[in-house]
């Protein structure tokens, strides 16, 4: 290697550039690189443990309400999304997402309204910055009954 500078440091970064036909250039870098990895627990599991229809008067039965009691395992979620679909879980009718604050134990009650009495597929997703978990249920909503 006549004329090449001798360098015994194997961690030196060497840069070279070459012209590119499209007018730009590429930069090639050789050497050692480091990166940090953080392992987070994430939300491991979501369970719908109770579904309760809210009793309303007949005049209020136009949009039935249901309370869903939900628990989770792992890290505490920061948001909840509810997707209400047809009974086959294929056609989405509504999506509602809300931020939540849970300080200690992952146990929360989610109240959702429905367009009318009927059978629905419901997906509840709890999420945070790094993970999310889903629970699904088929529910029959009976309005004011």
UniProtKB/TrEMBL annotation:
TM region(s), chain numbering: none
Superkingdom assignment: Eukaryota
PANTHER family: MELANOCYTE PROTEIN PMEL 17-RELATED, TRANSMEMBRANE GLYCOPROTEIN NMB
InterPro entries: PKAT, PKAT_KLD
GO molecular-function terms, A-Z: integrin binding
Name this polypeptide is given: QNR71 protein
Record domain PKAT KLD: where: 71-121
Gene Ontology cellular-component terms listed: plasma membrane
Gene source species: Xiphorhynchus elegans
Gene from which the chain derives: Qnr71
Biological-process GO terms, alphabetical: cell adhesion
């Amino acid at each position: 290697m006549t004329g090449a500078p001798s360098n015994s440091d194997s961690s030196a970064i060497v840069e070279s550039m070459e012209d590119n036909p499209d007018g730009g250039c590429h930069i090639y870098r050789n050497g050692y690189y480091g990166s940090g990895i953080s392992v987070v627990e994430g939300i491991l599991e979501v369970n719908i443990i109770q579904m309760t229809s809210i009793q309303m008067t007949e005049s209020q039965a136009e949009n039935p309400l249901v309370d869903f009691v939900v628990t989770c395992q792992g890290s505490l979620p920061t948001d909840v999304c509810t997707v209400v679909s047809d009974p086959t879980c294929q056609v989405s009718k509504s999506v509602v997402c809300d931020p939540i604050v849970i300080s200690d134990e992952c146990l929360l009650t989610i109240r959702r309204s429905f367009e009318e009495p009927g059978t629905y597929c419901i997906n509840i997703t709890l999420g945070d910055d790094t993970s999310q978990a889903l629970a699904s249920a088929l529910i029959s909503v009976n309005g004011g009954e």
